[in-house]
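Entry type: protein chain
Record version: 2
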Amino acid sequence: MEHLHRREKTAMNISLGVGILMLGLKWYAYWFTGSVAIFSDAMETIVHIAAVAFASYSLRITFRPPDKDHHFGHDKISYFSAGLEGGLIILAAIVIIYTGIEKLIVGVQLERVTLGMSLTALAGGINALLGWYLVRTGNKTNSLIIVANGKHILTDAWTSIGAILGLLIAQATGMTWVDPLAALIFGTNIIYEGFKLIRSSVDGLMDKTNHELEQKALTTIESFCSEHKLSFHRLRLRESGQRVYVDLHVLFPVGTPIERAHALATTLELAIAAQMPVTADVTTHLESKNHPTDHD
């Protein structure tokens, strides 16, 4: 677990450092060109830096051990982090859309377009690599915080690409209104990405079942019960950050010695945990087949 913590902290520190560098490049490009599309790109970078700051704090909280007030640990803060990042993305998109509409009405004057496109392309390329690295790292460590941050940066990279395309069209045709129009399109897409992050946050806080993990657990349980002539019911599974909790009732034949039942249940718990791609907390409840709560 400690090596995962170090890996995630390294990824987040890289994200923050690159974000500050990108902010400087993009605002420099906007200052030179006056492009609304580049402005939208720079705005999203500001949001990114704010989100990374909270995500870094959330990451530290996530790895705190359980205490007397948080018996199940602090993993769920990752969902708050993803939700906040989604909300900030939407806020930035609203500013982008408002600015785009304003510039469509009053017009926009573009200058030093080639320099602006070069700087934006550099920033977009760096962000694309960083976003890929963060999503890959987050998936390997099952960190929603890192994945959310990586997806945000990939959205930022696509915004940079769109800004360049808008500037190319505006430069080639003289239709400067294409630039703010591109910003409106980016803003709409950014809102969509923001809502997806909020949805993942809500799903986690509401303990939505991961059906892929549930199927892994179910396959293991059915195989084990078939082998040992047991049955089960009330299988429940929920995720909490980087941990999954599995709970089920195992039904034993009447007269099974408690020592044997406990040993079999422990073996089943270990088998389920071994099939999970993340740390698993598996709890089994032992019942006899004629138990009053038997629903099997």
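Comment: Residues 2-33 form the longest helix (32 residues).
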